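Figure 2 data, in text form.
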Amino acid sequence: MLDAAPTNLAGKTCLVTGANGGIGAAAAEHFAALGARVLTTDLGDSFVGSCDSTYRSINLLTADGLQDMQTWIAEETPDVLFNNAAIFDMGSVLEADLDQYDRLFGLNVRSFYAVMQGCAQALVAAGKPGSLINLASQAGHRGEALVAHYCATKAAVISYTQSAALALAPHKVRVNAISPGVIDTPMWKDVDALFAKFEGKPIGQKKIEVGEAVPLGYMGAPADVARVAVFLASDQSEYITAQTLSVDGGSVLR
C-alpha cells in the first residue's frame, strides 16, 4: 500500500505574522481549513481573515512588541511558523536613505530573524519537530534599480533560511522559504502608486504591465502562495529543508 504522507494539519499549531495582509490571511485560512489551530498577529485591532484564530496586535518594530512576541512564542511553541510580516518601499541607491533602510531592515530582517529564532528555540527546547516558513520574494533573487533596500532584505531572508535550516536539521526542524512573484494583494495599490511616482506612469499601468510580463500571463493570487505554505507545513514536505520555492508564474528561472 502506498505510504502517502498526510496533508492535514490536525493537531498542529500554526503561527502567522503579517496576518492581515492578503498572503498572511490566505495562509491562516488554509491552515485552519486543514485542521490546524491558528495564531495570528499584525497591526490592527482584529484579524481580517475568515477563519477562527487567536489574534494579538503586535508591533514588531518596537522593543516591547518584539518582547511580547517572544513571550507568546515561548508559551505556545508553534509547530509551524509562517514568517510573513514585512513592509515595502522604493528608492534607488541615489534616493533610498538610511531612514528607509532602518525601517525595512528593522522589520523584514531584524524582526523576521528574531521571530524565526524564537520559534526555533521553543521547538528545540520542547524536543519537537517543526516547519519554519519564511516569506522571501522574487526581489531577493536579483537587484532592482528602484527597490534597493527591499531587494536586499529579501536576499537576507533567503540566506538566513539556508543557514537556519542547516543549524536546525539535527533537531528535525525544517526551514524553507517561499519566494512569491507579483501577487494580487491589497498592498499592490500602494506599490502601483510608488511606481507611478518614480516611473511617471498612470495609476494602474504598472500593475497591468507586471501581470502581462509573467510567463503564465497574469498575477498570482494569495491562495497560490498559501497552498505552497500548506505543503511546507505538512508531512508532504518532510524531506525538504533549506530551500526557497518560487511561486511566480515562471518569472525567475533558477
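Caption note: The CA atoms of residues 164 and 175 lie 7 Å apart.
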